[in-house]
Design goal:
alpha/beta; 329 residues
């Protein structure tokens, strides 16, 4: 096993998930050999370079990393705007990539990245963490196997409460908080229901700083199904109330909170071992937030499985995210 480890490096430590991704990579030394980390911004080096997740690793330039003999993969964890340009350089160098979210405000650049990955036959795995959440996986299976019947409504919320420093950072993105957080929910909805027929955005600013801090999008599907996606960065204890409610004509599934996940299922009648009415859904104890993410990435890179989220899925999610934020496409 140790001889077959994937040689991987990380570019960027500015993304808010960067240190946790490195922790997950280093948690599985039988799968990954972390050869080094890149951070060209001295501000981020000063803020986060001392973190224990990076202890003992070689700091190098991007050119040094990409020219490392035997390098197979890169985790792209830069701060915001540099994610997709950095990922494109890695793919052009023939690397499989784990790319943290979201996929950039420039849709054509994101399409160029995906097209190049297709030509190079390398993996692009987006960092949407709820894909590997046990309650979400149950929900995806319940929807696709018809346990809930015809889905007519999904309500999804991913909010939090942030201070002035984070709000100023969000101001650098046209879509504000919706752009940063809604992709997590849209990714799950597209997986369950496919591409919607129409998306109507309602980006709102609640304060004079003009940060889009209260976002709503309505996604419309055929057969009368509507989906609402909400994100706010002004909700007190919003993290605790993150939830997804999926309603079908044979049952309803409520996931709240999303982390650590708890789920309740209500059915119209007894079915498949479940009983009529509301009941708790037993879930396995949660692992590290990104453990399964990274383990699956290893299996994909090794050719042991197909990526369950192919390039076309990532393309649809990114289109929907930008539409939901009010970007003109």
């Amino acid at each position: 096993m140790m001889e077959n480890r994937i040689k991987i490096g990380q570019i960027g430590i500015g993304h808010n998930h960067a240190s946790e991704k490195m922790k997950a990579l280093r948690r599985f030394p039988e799968l990954f050999e972390v050869v080094g980390v890149v951070e060209s911004d001295p501000v981020w080096r000063e803020k986060r370079g001392h973190m224990e997740e990076y202890e003992g690793l070689a700091w190098m330039s991007e050119e040094e990393l990409l020219s490392t003999p035997g390098l197979q993969a890169v985790a792209v964890e830069t701060d915001g705007h540099e994610l997709v340009p950095t990922a494109l350089r890695c793919v052009e160098a023939g690397m499989h990539i784990h790319l943290d979210k979201p996929g950039g405000e420039d849709l054509l650049l994101f399409k160029r990245l995906l097209d190049e990955a297709g030509r190079k036959n390398v993996t692009v795995q987006l960092g949407y963490m709820y894909r590997y959440n046990a309650a979400v996986r149950f929900a995806d299976k319940a929807v696709k196997e018809g346990l809930l019947g015809h889905i007519f409504e999904i309500d999804a919320v991913m909010s939090r409460h942030d201070g002035d420093e984070y709000r100023q950072w969000l101001k650098g993105f046209q879509g504000g908080g919706m752009y940063i957080f809604a992709g997590h929910l849209i990714d799950l909805i597209v997986s369950m229901l496919g591409k919607p027929e129409k998306i109507t955005p309602f980006p709102r600013c609640t304060r004079p700083d003009m940060v889009v801090d209260n976002g709503l999008a309505v996604m419309e599907y055929k057969n009368g199904c509507t989906v609402t996606v909400r994100t706010a960065v002004t909700e007190v204890e919003g993290y605790v109330r993150r939830n997804m409610v999926i309603c079908g004509d044979k049952g309803t599934l409520v996931i709240q909170p999303l982390e650590p996940p708890e789920a309740k299922l209500a059915l119209l009648e007894d079915r498949d071992g479940w009983v009529k009415g509301y009941q708790d859904v037993p879930l396995p104890p949660p692992e590290g937030r990104y453990d399964e993410h990274m383990k699956e990435f290893a299996r994909i890179v090794r050719g042991e499985m197909e990526n369950p989220y192919p390039l076309n899925h990532e393309w649809i999610v990114q289109q929907c995210l930008l539409e939901a934020c009010g970007y003109g496409l």
